[in-house]
Amino acid sequence: MNTGIIIGLLIPLIGTSAGAACVYILKDNLSDRVQRMLTGFAAGVMVAASIWSLLIPALGYAENLKHLSFIPATVGFWLGILFLLLVDHVTPHMHLNDNVPEGPHSHLKNQSLMALAVVIHNIPEGMAVGVVYAGFMYQMSGITASAAFALSLGIAIQNFPEGAIISMPMYAEGKNKNKAFMYGVMSGAVEPVGAALTILFSHLLIPAMPYLLSFAAGAMMYVVVEELIPEMSHGKHSHAGVLAFSAGFSLMMILDVALG
């Protein structure tokens, strides 16, 4: 694994860490309006990344199937949805604007459960980065170093608000800044680990690459619909979240097309 790929795998974690570092800069917790905007932005990035960086390459890689080229993308997409649905059910967690935890009963505090929710939806992001870099390594049609970097950068940008959304409330509830920062950073640590493991075993799964690409897309879309869209629409003035979603979608689309 060359240096460029290693940097690409670490970029999303850098985005999360930068967001978590807001705990050293901002005095007050993020307002509901700001949280909706940041969540909407993250959702827009993830939807655009699912389409341009994952589903379109999956369809292109299966073009030898001609009019049946949709099969790998569809099957992989549904497997990603069902995988995250299973993870959602077996892992205790809590969404941003909820007061009731989901999944199995746990004695963890609410902020820890919220961090687990972020970890859950970071799993497909790590897989997405890993599978795209694997596609580049094995010279898959349509996947270039620039396209892989665009995905890493886009996810890093949407990870910034996630780091802040984890660290700031923890500080507001009494944790010291260093602990709050580390919680924010650790919520994103699963991404480079998941990406590296995906690359490590990718040589065994080259024929299944379109399934892997669309699997990551399905898992990311599950997170968007299950978690991010409800959070960005919570409360009054949800149009702020919609506008932020559109901005995130546009930015990721521009990055993917311009750098790809």
Question: What this model shows, in words?
Answer:
The chain is mainly α and 260 residues long. The protein has one domain. The chain has helices at residues 3-20, 32-61, 70-90, 110-137, 145-172, 177-188, 190-202, 209-232, 239-259. It starts with a helix and ends with a helix. 53% of the residues are buried. The model has no long low-confidence stretch (mean pLDDT 81).
Can I get a quick summary?
By secondary structure, this protein is an all-alpha fold.
Helix-strand pattern, N to C?
Answer: HHHHHHHHH
Poorly predicted parts: none
How many helical stretches?
A: 9
Helix content: over 70%
Secondary-structure content class: mainly alpha
Name the beta content range.
under 5%
The outline comes out as globular
Task: Please count the beta strands (DSSP E, at least 2 residues each).
Answer: 0
Structure keywords:
260 residues; 75% helix; mainly alpha
Topology:
Elements: H1 3-20, H2 32-61, H3 70-90, H4 110-137, H5 145-172, H6 177-188, H7 190-202, H8 209-232, H9 239-259
Helix pairs in contact: 1-4, 1-5, 1-6, 1-7, 2-5, 2-8, 2-9, 3-4, 3-8, 4-5, 4-6, 4-7, 4-8, 5-6, 5-9
